[in-house]
Structure formats: structure tokens, C-alpha cells
Specification:
Oligomer: single chain
Structural class: alpha/beta
Number of strands: 11
Distance between the termini: 34 Å
Largest sheet: 6 strands, parallel
Length: 210
């Protein structure tokens, strides 16, 4: 189903967001859009929302399982504002967000659905889970000029690390409050719940930023 904007979608389908888990995929360009959508459909999300200014040619078998919403991700704070607009309608649901050419992986994801993952976390009375974004690089940019090679992905050899987060008042490190980073890109994030929704704010693999 297609919607011309977020407000139209919320008016028509906002109540359906109570039934998660939900994937929200922001599309910035034409790179690996179909594979991104197919990957997350296969993980078993109840809803897959695709926010994009336009979509490249995608097979009908994929499009039938997603909801597309016309959206400009390049406006200032556009993604943040979109999430905040949707959040009140998703209270109580597990929510995952990503961009095209980003793929969510978790232990046993080859044989377990995303619903089973969040069911475990719900039974453990958790409202969020720590996740990581890992940059994947193409080995040969002459063969993969867009920086994406899903069959031969490489990781940053600089490794992964965490730095203590300083207290804003004392500037001393806060206990168990860490800022996670990966390699030289510094692109790992903690996840956090917002407005009652259970937000999974990052993902386990993404397109290299060249």
C-alpha cells in the first residue's frame, strides 16, 4: 500500500502500529533497495514501512509485503522527526530502523524469526537491547563501485572499542555508560526506548561509507 506522506499513513493506518515488531527502512538512493527489503521481510516483521522519495524497480513479490510512504530523508532532522512522529503510535511495539543497504543480523537469525528474538527480550522484561552497526567494505571498488559487495564483505581492521561516557556535570566517567565505536568510522550506537516504544536503533551490517 502506498501513502503520499507520514500524516496520511498515520491517519489511515496508525492504529495498526500497535502490532509489532515493526521495521522502518529509510531509502536514500537506489543501492541494494530490493535486497534490503527482502532481507527484513524474511526476518518476519509484522510490518515493514519503507520511507523513500522514490523507489527503483522492485519485484512485485517484494512490494506486496511492504508499506511505502513518500518521504524526503535529506531534509534537516528528517529521519529523527519521522521516528518521533511515529513513536506515539508504536508504544508497546518493538521497532527496528535502518537505511537501504543495511541488514539486521542476530544469533540464529538463519533459523529464528525476529519475533522470536523480541519475545525472549519481552519475557526477560527488557524494553531495549544493545546493538551494533558494523561497516562492511567492498574488497575491490573497481568491481563494486558503489562500495557494496554482499558476497565478499570486509570489516575495518582497526577493530571495535568502547569509551566511558563522561557525566555531564562532573565530567568523570559514568559507571557502565559506554559509547561504542567501530574501527575508524565511529559508527556504533546504543539503542534506547523512546515514548514507550521499544526501539532497536541500530543494526549489524551496513554499506561502507567511502
Amino acid at each position: 500500500m502506498d501513502f503520499s506522506g507520514l500524516n496520511e499513513f498515520i491517519t489511515a493506518q496508525g492504529a495498526s502500529l500497535k502490532k509489532g515488531p515493526i521495521a522502518i527502512i529509510f531509502v536514500e538512493d537506489d543501492v541494494e533497495v530490493e535486497s534490503t527489503l527482502a532481507h527484513h521481510i524474511a526476518l518476519g516483521f509484522k510490518q515493514v514501512l519503507v520511507l523513500a522519495p522514490r523507489l527503483p524497480d522492485i519485484s512485485d513479490d517484494v512490494l506486496i509485503d511492504v508499506t511505502t510512504i513518500t518521504f524526503d530523508p535529506f531534509q534537516k532532522y528528517a529521519v529523527r522527526d519521522a521516528i518521533n512522529l511515529l513513536m506515539p503510535h508504536m508504544a508497546g511495539s518493538w521497532v527496528f530502523t535502518c537505511f537501504n543497504a543495511e541488514y539486521l543480523y542476530f544469533p540464529f537469525s538463519e533459523s529464528r524469526s525476529f519475533g522470536e528474538l523480541v519475545e525472549f527480550h519481552t519475557e526477560e522484561r527488557r524494553d531495549s537491547m544493545l546493538t551494533y552497526v558494523v561497516d562492511a567494505y567492498a574488497r575491490d571498488l573497481t568491481q563494486a563501485p558503489d562500495g557494496v559487495d554482499r558476497e565478499n564483505a570486509f570489516l575495518d581492521k582497526a577493530g571495535y572499542y568502547a569509551l566511558a561516557r563522561p557525566d555531564p556535570e562532573t565530567r568523570h566517567p559514568m559507571e557502565r555508560q559506554l559509547n561504542f565505536s567501530v574501527g575508524s568510522s565511529g559508527d556504533m550506537r546504543n539503542s534506547c526506548p523512546m515514548n514507550g516504544a521499544k526501539l532497536i536503533a541500530s543494526q549489524f551490517s551496513r554499506r561502507a561509507q567511502i
